[in-house]
């Protein structure tokens, strides 16, 4: 018996992306540069997060033409973003044939209470999380892949680090708890009980976990890998830098050789200017994208 | 490498193997069998080219090092890739077609009959999978899905379009380990 869009098939694609870099692109030309640099997938967007931040207003799903042209330009998987809770944007992206949907806090949320029922789709979803409870709520809703939220469009890795450390420390706490404490832990973190039990027994999330939100340099990518993520999303970090080609390649190599400081030193040479960075405390709390999602 | 190497590692370790991860040519020292995992073949090709890892693998394959490629690994092993000039190791006398079953939305799992592994079918997970469009007479066909070749062997080399590392059934990995012991 054959089955399309099964849980195994959805989580399986994320497994194939591990150890790789997923790059935000806004044109077919950028998508080609990403593929040529060794990206394992691209995220098709109308604007990268730092431009979305600068533009303000309401950020929505990209024009389908942009996504389609990027799908035609490259052979690697193409992801696209839908607004939190906007299940019709997700239906449109599925109909276009996008390989993965990011229900993303980078766009303006369409629902202030509920996320998309991702089990209802054949296409797999990735969602952002700042802690284990949030990650398990998203997986409970059907996300087949998780990423840290970080603070998108800042070129500042501190929030991604904080979110990854929080998830890892939440996981460690669960693994040391006796079984009778798990239900209360599930209640307190607002996570489905069966997934809390899975994490307590296995010491890891049931899906692949990538880093996102503020990664700008090869060293940032290697830092996140050493903290235990499975792979890297780079948003504005590539195409807002002075030499996108060289930086794209360097971030890919750094993600592979993340444990090899000598190689990292070579990779990090002569890359030109990184994207301009933003100190998190200068962003008003209601402007922080990571606060979006429930 | 990039891709599903951890699942292969778990599968092989559960069968009692010592497993090491290969990222650069020196990592190949002492290796008795090499798995090229699923992932993105273009991304893996960049890494194979970047520091001579691909050339070293080709040298060892010529000395009968057993190789097993899954999905992207199968693409890298093929001599010809339909409609593409991307880098490959080019060791198996076959033509493969990339993303041949369609995009992710068409990815599927199915019961696959593999006579060489017994009468019980293998639950095979296909993810943006390739298939083999053409084989030379010296290539053995181990399984087909709806008339498309998806599992092949040529001497010391084994390749599958599906992902045996994603399912608990270990028969495909056992088959590869038997090849490794034959060539030791």
Tell me briefly what this model is.
Chain A has 294 residues and is of the alpha/beta class.
Describe this protein's structure.
The complex is a heterodimer of chains A (294) and B (184). Chain A has 294 residues and is of the alpha/beta class. Chain A has helices at residues 7-17, 28-37, 49-55, 64-73, 87-96, 132-141, 158-175, 182-189, 193-202, 218-226, 236-239, 244-256, 261-267, and strands at residues 3-4, 21-25, 41-44, 78-83, 100-104, 125-129, 145-148, 208-211, 231-234. Chain A has an eight-stranded parallel beta barrel, surrounded by eight helices. Chain B has a single domain (5-183), classed as 3-Layer(aba) Sandwich (Rossmann fold), CATH 3.40.50.880. Chain B is built from five helices and ten strands. Chain B has a five-stranded mixed β-sheet. Chain B has a three-stranded mixed β-sheet with strand order 3-4-7. In chain B, strands 5-6 form a two-stranded antiparallel sheet. Chain B is globular and about 40 Å long. The mean pLDDT of chain B is 96. The chains are: A alpha/beta (294), B alpha/beta (184). Chain A binds chain B through residues 1-6, 8-9, 12-13, 15-20, 35, 37-41, 71, 75-77, 94, 97, 99-100, 122-124, 249, 252-253, 255-257, 260, and chain B through 1-7, 23-24, 38-40, 42-43, 45-47, 50, 71-72, 84, 98-99, 103-111, 125-128, 163, 166-167. Strand 1 (3-4) of chain A pairs antiparallel with strand 5 of chain B, so a sheet runs across the interface. Chain A: It is an enzyme of class 4 (lyase). Chain A: One of its GO terms (molecular function) is pyridoxal 5'-phosphate synthase (glutamine hydrolysing) activity.
């Amino acid at each position: 018996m054959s089955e399309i869009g099964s849980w195994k098939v959805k989580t399986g694609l994320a497994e194939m992306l591990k150890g790789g870099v997923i790059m935000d692109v806004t044109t077919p030309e950028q998508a080609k540069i990403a593929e040529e640099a060794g990206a394992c997938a691209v995220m098709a967007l109308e604007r990268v997060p730092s431009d979305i931040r600068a533009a303000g207003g309401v950020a929505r799903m990209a024009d389908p033409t942009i996504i389609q042209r990027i799908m035609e330009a490259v052979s690697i998987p193409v992801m696209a973003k839908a607004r939190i809770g906007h299940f019709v944007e997700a239906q449109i992206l599925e109909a276009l044939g996008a390989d993965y949907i990011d229900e993303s806090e980078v766009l303006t949320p369409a629902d202030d209470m509920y996320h998309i029922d991702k089990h209802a789709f054949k296409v797999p979803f990735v969602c952002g999380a700042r802690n284990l409870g949030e990650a398990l709520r998203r997986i409970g809703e059907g996300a087949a892949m998780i990423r840290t939220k970080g603070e998108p469009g800042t070129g500042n890795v501190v929030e991604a680090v904080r979110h990854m450390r929080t998830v890892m420390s939440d996981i460690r706490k669960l693994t040391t708890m006796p079984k009778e404490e798990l239900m209360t832990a599930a209640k307190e973190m607002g996570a489905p009980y069966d997934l809390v039990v899975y994490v307590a027994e296995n010491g890891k999330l049931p899906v692949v976990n990538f880093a996102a939100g503020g990664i700008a340099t090869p060293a940032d990518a290697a830092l996140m890998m050493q903290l235990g993520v499975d792979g890297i999303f780079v948003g504005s970090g590539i195409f807002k830098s002075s030499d996108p080609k060289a930086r794209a390649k360097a971030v890919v190599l750094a993600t592979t050789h993340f444990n090899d400081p000598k190689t990292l030193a070579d990779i990090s040479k002569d890359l030109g200017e990184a994207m301009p960075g933003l100190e998190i405390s200068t962003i008003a709390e209601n402007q922080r994208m990571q606060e979006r999602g429930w | 490498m990039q891709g599903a190497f951890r699942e292969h590692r778990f599968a092989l370790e559960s069968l009692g193997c010592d497993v090491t991860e290969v990222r650069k040519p020196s990592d190949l020292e002492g290796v008795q069998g090499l798995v090229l995992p699923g992932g993105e073949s273009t991304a893996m090709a960049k890494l194979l080219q970047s520091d001579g890892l691909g050339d070293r693998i080709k040298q060892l394959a010529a000395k009968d090092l057993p190789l097993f490629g899954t999905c992207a690994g199968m693409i890298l092993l093929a001599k010809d890739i339909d409609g593409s000039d991307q880098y490959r190791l080019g060791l198996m006398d076959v033509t493969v077609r990339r993303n041949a079953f369609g995009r992710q939305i068409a990815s599927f799992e199915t019961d696959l009959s593999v006579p060489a592994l017994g009468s019980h079918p293998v639950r095979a997970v296909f993810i943006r999978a390739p298939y083999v469009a053409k084989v030379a007479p010296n290539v053995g066909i181990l399984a087909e899905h709806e008339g498309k070749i998806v599992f092949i062997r040529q001497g010391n080399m084994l390749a599958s379009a599906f992902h045996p590392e994603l399912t608990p059934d270990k028969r495909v990995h056992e088959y590869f380990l038997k090849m490794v012991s034959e060539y030791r």
